[in-house]
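Readers outside the structure-tokenisation community will struggle with the description of the input data as it stands. I therefore recommend that a typical entry be quoted early in the introduction. An entry of this sort, consisting of the sequence and the corresponding backbone structure tokens, reads as follows:
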Amino acid sequence: MFVRMSHWKCRKEFWTEDFKLFNKGAIPIMKNHSGFIKAMLLGGRNTSERIAFTMWENEEAYSNFSRHKDLEKIIKMFEHMYEKNGSPKPFEYEVRAES
């Protein structure tokens, strides 16, 4: 398995809109890509910090998605919510162990 975690900062007035857009916009797009397993949006109630967590069957599946225009489409979808200098910073990981 392979995981992408993207850290970003969301303006506080979008506390409820961010997860709605994630569920109705981003997840359906990712579901159309082979090897997609799961996605979650994480965020603390009293912070602007967000983490978009996506899980893929393998690195190749993730790489195919990351090169596709759909990833840029998702990033732009949330652009109006980003704090200044708060755009996504991705971290990519191979899953080394799981339970």
Residues 20 and 89 are 21 Å apart (CA to CA).
